[in-house]
Write a structure and sequence with these properties.
By secondary structure, this protein is mostly helical. The chain has eight helices and no strands.
């Protein structure tokens, strides 16, 4: 019997399951590092359904429409601080200003790290994404309001 089992990092190199998800599973004590034989069997099962649309659909179906939309808007934002920045800008009151410096300060205090210039530039891009999404949602609501009022 092989007493040497792969680490999470080694396993992630050949698996469709991202390392980030494997580390999350370790934090939640679902798997161990290094992986055990039991972990490998379970991960093999997870790999078989990973990304399966029917499984994803069933999982998303349990969320409300509002939650699904919010989730899809932020799905490309990988870190919590990015999602935080997006939600701060997206949920901002109309006609109010939210300075970049304020959001940077909030993130640094909340998530306890000093932001680099690259991360601050990332917030600028996120702010633009949120503003565009807000504008599109506003236009969509106006169109739907116009269509409903003509009926």
């Amino acid at each position: 019997m092989n007493d040497h089992y792969p680490t999470i990092t080694d396993y992630a190199r050949q698996s469709p399951i991202p390392r980030k998800i494997l580390l999350l599973m370790e934090r939640e004590e679902i798997i161990q590092d290094p992986l055990t034989q039991e972990d490998l069997i379970g991960l093999n099962l997870v790999e078989q359904i990973w990304g399966n649309r029917a499984v994803l659909r069933a999982q998303l179906n349990r969320m409300s429409l509002h939650t699904r939309k919010r989730f899809i808007r932020t799905v490309a934002l990988n870190s919590k601080w990015e999602r935080y920045a997006y939600s701060r800008y997206f949920n901002q009151k109309p006609e109010s200003r939210l300075p970049l410096t304020q959001v940077v300060e909030e993130i640094q205090i909340t998530f306890r790290f000093e932001m680099t210039r690259k991360q601050i530039n990332r917030i600028r891009k996120i702010r633009t994404q949120a503003q565009v999404a807000r504008h599109r949602e506003k236009k969509k609501m106006e169109r739907e309001g116009l269509l409903q009022s003509t009926n």
